[in-house]
Design brief:
Elements (H helix, E strand, L loop, with lengths): L5 E3 H7 L4 H9 L6 E16 L12 E16 L2 H6 L5 E3 L14 E4 L16 E3 L3 E4 H10 L22 H14 L13 H9 L5 H10 L14
Antiparallel strand pairs: 1-7, 2-3, 2-5, 2-7, 4-6
Helix pairs in contact: 6-7
Amino acid sequence: MIETTHIRLNKAAEILNTDADTVLIAGSEGRVRLYWLLNRPLHAELGHFHEPSDPPPDEPPVYWVTEGLGFKFFFFIPLDSMEAAELLKKETITAKASALTEQDTNGRFWMPAGGWAVEGGGLVHDDLHVTRDAVFLKRTDIECIGKRGVTPSAGTVLPLPSHAQRGLVSDKLAILSRAAATFWANVDRDDRSTHPKNASVAAWLMERGYSKTLADQAASIIRPEWAPTGRKAEE
């Protein structure tokens, strides 16, 4: 017998002695968490939203704090309750993918770096098309409902975090964050041969809409302080 962590919607409904529509309704009411199959790697940001107690008047009341960047593989990502409701009316929906994971105990979650539309490291519209066949439940959630014999209350599942505030960051800053992760995430501090040249970074940025002057400046900005500049010493 093979047990899996995630179970497809129709099979989950069968186990729960109900139908797929009822499970989708439960998902839209926040009674169960649904997931959809993304199954692809992408550049993502780990972070959290911060709301200062006394924000300065020139800053947004809530802003996104990035704690890490990475090129990660994501299989099953949470389905928003509104998306579950939408699947009751349509055969195919376009998901938002605003949160790639649920929040951990520290309030952190993964989301697409720079918003899902960032060229080269994000998602395209075809990736976001979701049908019922792509919807799953976790086996542990199904078993928990079965053991209790009671339908979870509406609102039991917390709403997914939204990256609406992510729109406060310009496209150029989002691309710059990707450049930092792309060129500096896997270098060896002690091996200068692995350090990218500023000219290479600038060229990459220019391909994505930066002017030459801005690209040169940006390449210097994201160069870590520990990375020396100039010609390598002759051995």
